[in-house]
Amino acid sequence: MYSDKVMDHFTNPRNVGEIANADGVGEVGNARCGDIMKIWIKVEDGIIQDVKFKTFGCGAAIATSSVITEMAIGKTLDEAEEITNKSVAEELEGLPPLKMHCSNLAADALRAAIEDYRKKHPITA
Amino acid sequence: MYSDKVMDHFTNPRNVGEIANADGVGEVGNARCGDIMKIWIKVEDGIIQDVKFKTFGCGAAIATSSVITEMAIGKTLDEAEEITNKSVAEELEGLPPLKMHCSNLAADALRAAIEDYRKKHPITA
Amino acid sequence: MSEIYLDHAATTPLRPEVLEAMLPYFNQEFGNPSSVYGAGRRAHQALDQARDTVADLLGAKSEEIIFTSGGSEAANLAIKGVAWAYQTKGKHIITSAIEHHAVLDAVLWLKQQGFEVTILPVDEEGFVDPQSVQEALRGDTILVSIMHANNEVGTIQPIEDIGAIVRAHGAFFHTDAVQTAGILDLDVAELNVDLLSLSAHKFYGPKGVGALYVRKGVRLDPLIHGGAQEKRRRAGTENVAGIVGLAKAFELAQAERGEVTRHLIQLRDQLLQGLQAIPHTKVNGSLERRLPNNVNVCFQFIEGESLLLNLDLKGIAGSSGSACTSGSLDPSHVLLAMGLSHEIAHGSLRLTLGRENTQDQVTYVLEEIPIIVERLRAMSPLYNA
Amino acid sequence: MSEIYLDHAATTPLRPEVLEAMLPYFNQEFGNPSSVYGAGRRAHQALDQARDTVADLLGAKSEEIIFTSGGSEAANLAIKGVAWAYQTKGKHIITSAIEHHAVLDAVLWLKQQGFEVTILPVDEEGFVDPQSVQEALRGDTILVSIMHANNEVGTIQPIEDIGAIVRAHGAFFHTDAVQTAGILDLDVAELNVDLLSLSAHKFYGPKGVGALYVRKGVRLDPLIHGGAQEKRRRAGTENVAGIVGLAKAFELAQAERGEVTRHLIQLRDQLLQGLQAIPHTKVNGSLERRLPNNVNVCFQFIEGESLLLNLDLKGIAGSSGSACTSGSLDPSHVLLAMGLSHEIAHGSLRLTLGRENTQDQVTYVLEEIPIIVERLRAMSPLYNA
Ligand SMILES: Cc1ncc(COP(=O)(O)O)c(C=O)c1O
Ligand SMILES: Cc1ncc(COP(=O)(O)O)c(C=O)c1O
């Protein structure tokens, strides 16, 4: 059902946990549909230095959360915002069709965290 | 499907044929329902001396025709008239339910032959 | 005396290669294909592969194949499924008088439920005239169902032509290909069909499994509601072993088709020729567009079941449209629709050949049948020799 | 690492004795049971014998058994068959909120076609209150369908009581016994049912074959129209091997029931006890009236599919009512009907035992599960340890 890469991230998820005093936090999903993702980011000079996640959800939800942490670290906020649910799925070498919809929310969670960061750190020109 | 006795009468039907100058002839059934039985009888002193039949029909139709010739020979006309389709089926150790209806007409054919005989030989008291 | 089986249109023995392909799915890979763990995933893979194979052989896409419990279910699903799904668009259905009862009775039941039905006649060889389909189509016609080849007389319908007419009109077209799958080359695009039914046990696969091709975009209400199997169009835990068997048997039939067809036609023509030499004998169906394995004749003055029983006593297994074998009073609705009288229709014999039949068997059969026919005629009140 | 199969409610492996009983009917006795010649008659005899066996085991008469392609078809035939046959008498149907989708979706489809439906609630253990059936019955109620035991939580309904109420009212009563056939002792007279569905692959028989008991006098419109098979109530060439397998498996299950049940209950209770020791764990279903092979728990703060995947990696095959495994957004409709929140319902785990499971396996499972649960909770945003 799942690709090897999904199973790798599912069995050895990267960057699980929380960041104390995170610069931004994003949460998407709800218990009703069975997937909740929460992402914490640490930002320095407009660059994402660290990402951590916690996820309640199926194998795809956990793997997408894990892989997006790797994809985001080192990127500028603008670059990170370009990550889509689709590019996450591609990074994982595909997801089952059923999972594309409801469990592939990691990019949304990351964007929510970035938005949270931007709200807390308004650019004062 | 068929009892041994049915198969015996089917494979070795008794008294097949016609009686030239028969005293009575009876025919029942029609081609539409797939069974036609014709019975010829020879009567002497009110006793059936000989019976012959020709049948167009399924295994049950042939076997019932055959067995009724044996049942009728030697009987008085009154006795022979008492033979029912049911007693023919019993004599054959049973017939499949589907066959009880449409293919078990031999007693009717015999009665038709007796009726024909009585019509041609009215009792002049 | 070993049996000579000449009733391949009724059913066929499972091929050993097919049984072998099925065996692992009984108690090794026995998982439920809907399950996420290994045993379930492997069963699911087997289903996927079978679906790909069947789709390939029909020139279809995998998602266009629904596995069913046989030809009857496939045909019922096609007809009732489309009827229910499109009832708001129209309630008129067209079929032919010589369909298998799986089609005919499904359509007649829908009629009871308020659908309107046109049943097209056939000519004396059993052909549906495409022009009659054209004329029967109405604005509210949602479905036309015409069988590919008839199971009794073997006549092969001009499905491509009928399909083109139905498509141009905008209705859906189903063909019951139960007698042609595994025998003729089937391509759903060439045939111009939207739905096509087949059944594994007719081509050396297992009994109790069939398939329905449904062109993408055609909606169906399920016959069997429940789980999400078959993309929600047919619920129930899948008969994995059976489905694997269907695909394997279909594949083998396709691979060997050319060679087997030549063999069947040779035996068929030998039989037809030999039987025609018996007086008062009529060949039923077309001689030109005929299934390679089908022989159907009527011997006047005798009845079908007694003929079959006598054949059985000689070790020959055949079939008849006789009323007595079907439990109804009327003989074959197919022969009657082709214009035969009741009397003659009652005396029909169908012999359908298979890949393992031999010329020696045919020779033996041609020796025995005339004797049996003569014997039965001698006791028939209809025969005046 | 050999697999520990704990999903017997989903399906079971075919028993070797059953396969052996089936094998002759694939390519030796392969005849079509409708045929008059020897091979057909012998296949027909095998069907008759299988029918007698199943009837005997249910306390029914042979002519009251219809063979189908599985539990889903049996339930659909019962429900739609009665609905169509009695639609002029009434159009009201009663069922419960925790039925298998084969029942629920069939009933909901009928609703779309103009029938009226009452769906009864259940209590927190999954019980239908017989009193609620009494209250729901109307003058135009034609059918009530309540499952014997639930496939997810194992709760066994008071079928006898419900049946008595339905009978007194004059409606028909169907029970989906797919989870109890082969597990509990079934007697249609004691159960007060008019129709009962079962499926072979749930008791070590083949997939793709089931049976419907229909009390004499209850009319049914067929789901599959066509040939005269199954007394014109279910058309299609019979899956002879499958039907023989169903009867054999049912017979074996009945013969070994006492012993197997004791074994299952012991393992079940060991599992239930061990799992309850995990914090924030809830047992679903009744502890008193529960299937001997069913364990169903919710681990708070985690989701079912990721739990199952982790179990699979440890060689343990289980199941979940999780939305993610069913392809819908909602978790188990059964757990929701029992009053669980979505969040908790998502974390359910069903382990269903079989005759070959061992105490060692249970011990291993009880070692692994707490570790997995802890690991998943550690990455759950809902959990604050
Ligand atoms: C309670 C219940 N009813 C019906 C079914 C359907 O049976 P089948 O999958 O054999 O069609 C199942 C199992 O899937 C079940 O557990
Ligand atoms: C033309 C045709 N359609 C449908 C069927 C039904 O197929 P099955 O018996 O597999 O249900 C048959 C054979 O019985 C057939 O010959």
- Residues in helices of chain C, as a percent range: 40-55%
The residue-averaged pLDDT of chain C reads 95
Q: Tell me the fraction of residues in β-strands of chain A, as a range.
A: 15-25%
**Class by alpha and beta content of chain C:** alpha/beta
Structural class of chain A: alpha+beta
The CATH superfamily of the largest domain in chain C is Type I PLP-dependent aspartate aminotransferase-like (Major domain)
Spans where pLDDT lies below 50 across 5 or more residues of chain C: none
Number of domains of chain C: 2
Radius of gyration of chain A: 14 Å
Strand order, main sheet of chain A: write it out: 1-2-3
Distance from first to last alpha carbon of chain A: 50 Å
Please write the string of helix (H) and strand (E) elements of chain A. Answer: HEEEHHHHH
* Strand order in the largest sheet of chain C: 2-8-7-6-5-3-4
Helix content range of chain A: 40-55%
What is the number of E strands of chain A?
A: 3
What is the end-to-end distance of chain C?
Answer: 32 Å
**Extended strand count of chain C:** 12
Per the CATH scheme, the topology name of the largest domain in chain C is Aspartate Aminotransferase, domain 2
Considering residues with a beta carbon less than 8 A from a beta carbon on another chain, report the largest interface and each chain's count: C-D, 76 and 76 residues
Order of helices and strands of chain C: EHHHEHEHEHEHEHEEHHHEEHEHHHEH
How much strand of chain C? Answer: 5-15%
Explain this structure.
The complex is a heterotetramer, with two copies of chain A (125 residues) and two copies of chain C (385 residues). Chain A has 125 residues and is of the alpha+beta class. In chain A, 44% of the residues lie in helices and 22% in strands. Chain A has six helices and three strands; from the N terminus they run αβββααααα. Chain A has helices at 4-11, 59-72, 77-81, 85-91, 97-102, 106-120; strands spanning 24-30, 35-44, 47-56. Chain A has a three-stranded antiparallel sheet. In chain A, α1 (4-11) packs across α2 (59-72). The radius of gyration of chain A is 14 Å and the shape is globular. With 385 residues, chain C is of the alpha/beta class. Chain C folds into two domains: 4-12 and 257-384, Aspartate Aminotransferase, domain 1; 16-255, Aspartate Aminotransferase, domain 2, CATH 3.40.640. In chain C, the strands form three sheets. In chain C, strands 2-8-7-6-5-3-4 form a seven-stranded mixed sheet, sandwiched between helices. In chain C, strands 9-10-12 form a three-stranded antiparallel sheet. In chain C, strands 1-11 form a two-stranded parallel ribbon. In chain C, α8 (188-191) links the parallel β6 and β7. Classes of the chains: A alpha+beta (125), C alpha/beta (385). Chains in contact: A-D, B-C, C-D. The interface between B and C is medium-sized, with 29 and 24 residues. Bound molecules: pyridoxal-5'-phosphate (PLP) (2 copies). One pyridoxal-5'-phosphate binds at residues 70-72, 75, 100, 102, 147, 151, 176, 178-179, 199, 201, 210 of chain C.
